[in-house]
């Protein structure tokens, strides 16, 4: 298909085993309750900056393994040997700034958990906001969170609309789960 107008149109004709089709049909835009899963999505979006989403989806399991299954407490406690291990791991994106951002952001989330009870509750507390307001808020707290990274993180986790076109059957499944954007 030439120039699809949406991710839904782009993946519609792909085989169900394609990483994009799996992500579209099972994860993109679905609300996430678990802080470790939210952290995972944030780190994957950060690592996507400047790269293709296909690269990230193909490396997702390797990222999970490298980052202690995205256990926030474990990642927050990473020290220099962990940084070196990650920089030497050919299965992930080996970028010191992004690795440092993951560790920093895990520590920020630990603080948010103490203050709000969870990362999700912090997100809920600030919802709804515009893309610009969210970006400003994220930039105050997190590292490596530009406008597009924040936008995709929020769309992919159900805080901003736009993951699916209205006619997409997956959109109907997402709406049934009552994502934050649908509750405005």
Percent strand equals under 5%
CATH superfamily heading of the domain at 32-157: Hypothetical protein, domain 2
CATH-defined topology of the domain at 32-157: Endonuclease III, domain 1
- Compute the number of strand runs: 0
Q: What percent of residues adopt helix (DSSP H or I)?
A: 55-70%
- N→C terminal distance: 34 Å
List low-pLDDT spans: none
Q: What is the CATH architecture term of the domain at 32-157?
A: Orthogonal Bundle
Order of helices and strands: HHHHHHHHHHH
Number of helices: 11
Characterise the protein shown here.
The protein is mainly α and 184 residues long. The chain has a domain of 126 residues: Hypothetical protein, domain 2 (Endonuclease III, domain 1). 61% of the residues lie in helices and 0% in strands. It contains eleven helices and no strands.
